[in-house]
Amino acid sequence: MNIEPWKIISDFMNIEYWKIIIAAVLGFITAVFTEPIKNHFSVKVKKKQIRIGLYKEITSIYEGLRLYLRASENNPQSVSILDILGSDFSCYEYAKKEPVIFYQLREATLINLIYQNITTLKQKDDSIHPEKKIHLIKAVLDQIDFITSSSSFNGKLFRRLLKDLRITKKVRQKALSESLTQIK
């Protein structure tokens, strides 16, 4: 087999080979540099979504506990905490499944503290005396008030969500009362 050196050199100098090599190298370099940037922004977006979800859930819990206190003024034994708060904390459970992102939140330890106390309160719902339960609920509400005033916690977001929740609740109550008057 006779190989001619000029044929090898002319094949190597062919522009089509260089296009393929340059495209492959540029594709690799682009992937190496853009992947960390993409990951950074995706983590940032996910962190924001988790934070807002947790704040909404804590706001709902806070308002639920306040509702429980109002409902239990007349008859503390008639209402269960589970009826008001529900049985799961889906956003918190999701956040705990994403520990790398969750613990990047500056308020992660405070959020853990809130949920630990609420979980304890829910677990002891049936076993504690109603007056002690009311005392514990007031303590949890005071703790949430204290935590939301902390510099690590975004109190402004919490108060805005709480206000939105109350406005939504008022609108629902007004619509319900209007529909009841129309039925009569």
The largest sheet, given as strand count, sense and whether it forms a barrel, is:
none
Strand content: under 5%
Tell how many strands the DSSP assignment holds. 0
Mean pLDDT across the residues is 80
Helix percent band: over 70%
Task: Give an overview of the whole structure.
It is a single chain. The protein has 184 residues and is mostly helical. The protein is built from eight helices and no strands. The model has no long low-confidence stretch (mean pLDDT 80).
Task: Compose a concise summary of this entry.
This protein is mostly helical and 184 residues long. Helices cover 80% and strands 0% of the residues. It has helices at residues 5-12, 15-72, 81-85, 90-97, 99-102, 108-123, 130-148, 155-183.
Itemize the secondary structure elements and their pairings:
Blueprint: H1 5-12, H2 15-72, H3 81-85, H4 90-97, H5 99-102, H6 108-123, H7 130-148, H8 155-183
Features:
184 residues; mainly alpha; rod-shaped
